[in-house]
């Protein structure tokens, strides 16, 4: 299927602020989903093909709430073959649950085997063409445009022919895909590599933004910031999220990531509520997932 014939995912129900869907939160969520939570996010690798109690519990929620699929292991920039078997499993899973948005990291994480880390892609013209071709193939299989997420990294790959923001923009244009904006990743990289996060964000193809992540991070003793999703969101990251809404010109569905040191649901709801407050304060039209 040619890329230009892909439908753009849309759902009248997907908007506002969301939370990562984790098994340890299910009992509390079954007792009541806080009003501030408009949708949930899950990693399809952790749920596709699952049976038994986990499948039944997930179905109870996908029948009542919008969900977003955020992939972990597609390795869009990797040297190994694209995992088309996984993509077909994801397409089937999304169809079974009525999910309309899939995003993945603009990184690589596998060669002969999975490396269990998200590694940066060389910022070269050849890498743009390679990665964009793989994204187009993923879109052909999923039959929808996907969002690619700007990633955090800790070693800048050598041989750069362009800036990171130029690379992201080139991939998005070449692949005719969408942008999944992660404001914490921008902040972490800006501190570790010494650049202006606002200026960087303004250079991205924000008109293609379909989805946003916000999260906490960890600061090492030497000052290195690590994108752990294991702490509360700090004020500069909230400020960057507010700036993102201004720069985009619309309020985009935004998810709180919390993968480690997970607090109770009321504590998470406080942070999701902060997303809601920033969206309301933005005074912008609401953009549904696009």
Please tell me about this protein's structure.
Strand 7, helix 5 and strand 8 (178-182) form a beta-alpha-beta unit. This protein is 38% helix and 17% strand. It has one domain: Divalent-metal-dependent TIM barrel enzymes (TIM Barrel). The strands form 3 sheets. It has an 8-stranded parallel barrel. It has a two-stranded antiparallel ribbon with strand order 5-6. The protein has a two-stranded antiparallel sheet with strand order 10-11. It has helices at 26-31, 52-62, 84-97, 125-142, 164-175, 183-193, 197-202, 235-248, 265-282, and strands at residues 17-20, 39-42, 67-70, 102-105, 108-110, 114-119, 147-149, 178-182, 209-215, 218-219, 225-226, 254-257. The model is unreliable at 1-5 and 7-12 (pLDDT under 50). It is an alpha/beta fold.
Short description:
This protein is an alpha/beta fold and 290 residues long.
Averaged pLDDT: 90
Tell me the major beta sheet: 8 strands, parallel, barrel
**Looking at the structure, what is the overall shape?**
globular
CATH topology: TIM Barrel
CATH superfamily: Divalent-metal-dependent TIM barrel enzymes
Write the CATH architecture name: Alpha-Beta Barrel
Beta strand count: 12
**Can you write the helix and strand succession as a string?**
EHEHEHEEEHEHEHHEEEHEH
């Amino acid at each position: 299927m040619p890329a230009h014939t892909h439908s753009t995912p849309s759902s009248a129900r997907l908007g506002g602020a969301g939370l990562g869907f984790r098994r340890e939160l299910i009992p509390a969520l079954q007792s009541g989903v806080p009003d501030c939570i408009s949708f949930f996010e899950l990693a399809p690798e952790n749920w596709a093909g699952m049976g038994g109690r986990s499948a039944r519990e997930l179905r109870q929620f996908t029948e009542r709430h919008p969900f977003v699929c955020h992939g972990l292991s597609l390795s869009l920039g990797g040297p190994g073959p694209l995992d088309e078997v996984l993509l077909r499993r994801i397409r089937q899973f999304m169809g079974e649950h009525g999910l309309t948005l899939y995003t993945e990291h603009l990184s690589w994480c596998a060669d002969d085997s999975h490396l269990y880390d998200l590694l940066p892609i060389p910022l070269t013209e050849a890498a743009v063409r390679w990665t964009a071709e793989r994204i187009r193939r993923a879109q052909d299989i999923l039959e929808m445009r996907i969002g690619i997420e700007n990633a955090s990294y800790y070693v800048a790959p050598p041989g750069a022919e362009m800036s990171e923001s130029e690379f992201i923009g080139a991939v998005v244009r070449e692949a005719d895909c969408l942008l999944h904006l992660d404001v914490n990743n921008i902040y972490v990289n800006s501190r570790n590599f010494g650049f202006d996060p606002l200026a960087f964000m303004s250079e991205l193809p924000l008109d293609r933004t379909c989805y946003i992540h916000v999260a906490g991070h960890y600061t090492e003793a030497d000052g290195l910031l690590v994108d752990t999703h294991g702490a509360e969101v700090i004020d500069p990251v909230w400020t960057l999220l507010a700036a993102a809404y201004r720069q985009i010109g619309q309020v985009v569905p935004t998810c709180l990531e919390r993968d480690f040191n997970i607090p109770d649901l009321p504590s998470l709801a406080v942070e999701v509520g902060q997303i809601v407050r920033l969206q309301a304060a933005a005074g912008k039209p609401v953009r549904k997932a696009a």
